[in-house]
Each structure stands twice: as structure tokens, then as C-alpha cells.
């Protein structure tokens, strides 16, 4: 009996000692599972703050620890040589006269650093591969003036005869090229924590160009243009720009413009509306912001007639920002009229309806009514019916906006002026 108790005590003692060793080892990371180690580390406030700081694009003033770019060209020499040797140059980057060669040469004045995803073992902070803010701004201006608004046989979207659509080629040559190079510019800005006037100028031009692209390409198939990707990068740039306005000392000469664009593009967003209401009274009462808030109020109140009437007062770029909400507003207007004027004996003038829908072309108004199964007689009047109103099939109703509003005037410099911040007093249906 005493022997068994003694053996049990020794066994318990060994078990206790073994548990203590495991506990001690776990405290050093030897026995605790990796998930437990990770969760314990994430509970530390300083680690959690550092993780958030690394994952969010920074617009804070550059710290002494931030890398400083020394590359004075739009593309680092190392990348230019690598892409030339691997035949990875874009058509816009090849040296004139070598386009048909088996291995075209790079034009140092036209080659732009492309975006590359961060990878393990790849150092993206080398000073000779980073462009300083002044060079980044010069790169953005080159992309706007020489690529996005360049004259010649590569317009944004235009049918060449009846053989093929040049826009299919153009999206690859113009939009994709500009979008990728702008993404590379923002990547260099994030690494260097770029701020100040150059940083704001870059972000402002980026936002304007992406807003215009969201209007210009909205009717294109997904294989040519993905609105979600464009929207993601537009929202990131817009959020970063708003942070610059809030944290950096002024004056911010374009803040009124971009506060209005943010509100129009994110119509109905409670977060953006709250941010706007917290602005100083001077900004809230400015004409652009006040008009954007009135349109936002009409949208929240489901008053499409007032919204579309106010939309005619917008500038060209503001209309581009509002454009993605226009289809829903027009649909709401037709639904309201279909219930309020539902009668076989009621004939509503199609021309008047086109004015209410903010459309300059009566034929487009008739097309919109037919898409919702409303009767249109002799392209002169429409018969509303609450039982006949039907939601159109997805993809059947194409955008009715004038995507070639700039091309019709044969003035590509006008688009460049818009993106650089020169106002264009033109109403857009």
C-alpha cells in the first residue's frame, strides 16, 4: 500500500514537472501553436498599430526613415534594360523606327515604370528605382498630355469604318497603359510616404482621370473594362486626397471641387455625407458643394425629377461623377410616372419626358421607355401603365450617355484641360 502511494506520488510529480516544462516552453514559443502565438501578439497594442500602419496607404509627412527616390527619369535604367532585353516594352514605349524589329528598342523619354506586385526577396525601396515627387508629377502629366489625350488613330472609343472597333484596341493601348502606370506612381508615393503640394497634384489628376474613365467606358464589356477595379483605385486615391486636405496645412485651392466630386460619385453614402457635413461652413456653402448636397438630398428622398433637373447645372466632370447613378434615377422616374399616370387614355409627350429624363435626344427617351415595356406611339408620346412597367433584363439596356462628347468637338486638349483642373462649362445629358 505504501509502495503504490509512493509510486503514484512520483508519477504525479513527474507529470507536474513535465507540464511545467511545457508551460515554460510555451512561454518561449516552443510549444504554443502558431495560431496562438499570432493571436497573443496581435493583442499587443503596439503590434496592432504597426500592422495597421503598414497596410494602409500613408499620406503623412515623410519621416527620416522613409526611403528617398533618386531616379530622375520616368523609368529606372535597370527596369528599362530588363524590359528591353525581355521584349516587354509597350507600343507607346518603343523607339521610333524600331517598332517592326524583332526586339524593339526602348525610348528613354517615353518609357514609364510599370506596376509590379510586391514579392518575397524583392527590394522595392532602393533609392535608384524610386522616383521623387517632382518626377512622379512629371510622369502623370506625360500620361495625361501624351497618352490619354493624344491625337491620332488611337481614340478612346470610336468605330473605324465598319470593319472593327478601334476601342477594343484602344482600351489595351490607352486605358490599360495609363491605369497601370498611374498605379506604379501611387506605389512609389506609398513607399516614400509622399505628401505636400506635389502629392496633392498627383492625386487630383488621378481622381479626375479615373472619374472620366468611369463615364467614358461604362458601356464596354468586362473583358475590356472592369468598373469595380477602376472604382477601387478611384476610391483609394480619393480617400488619400481627403486625408491630405484634412491633415496638411493649406491653402487647398481645389478642395471644394473634390468634396463635391466625392459626394456626387458616392451618392447616398452616409459616410461621405457625414464627412461633408463636418466641413467648415465656408466649404459647405460653396456653390459646388451646396449643389452636390442638394442632389444628394433629392437622391435620398427618392425624388428623381428634382435630381435630374439639378443635374443639368453640373459641370462636365461633375456629370461624369454622377453618371453611374443616372440609370437608377431614370428608372425611378419612369416607375413613379407609370403609377401616377397609369391610364390608357393618357398620352404623355415624349419630348417633355426626354427633358425630365435629362436627355437631349427624344429617340433615346423612346428607347428607354421601350426597354421598360412602356408603349411609345409614333415616337411622339408614351402611354404609362403600372402593370406594364417591367424591369429590363441585365445588359439589355445600354448606357445612353454621349460617350464621345469630347471626340465630337475634335479638341483633345479640352480633355487634358479638364484633367489638369481647368473647368469646362458644358452640360452633359
UniProtKB/TrEMBL annotation:
Record-annotated SAC3/GANP/THP3 conserved domain positions: 74-377
Top-level taxon in the UniProt lineage: Eukaryota
Skewed-composition ranges (Basic and acidic residues): 34-57, 92-116
One annotated Gene Ontology cellular component of this protein: nucleus
Region (Disordered): 1-73, 92-128
One of the GO BP terms on file: spindle assembly
Start-end of Basic residues biased regions: 12-21
Name of the protein: SAC3 domain-containing protein 1
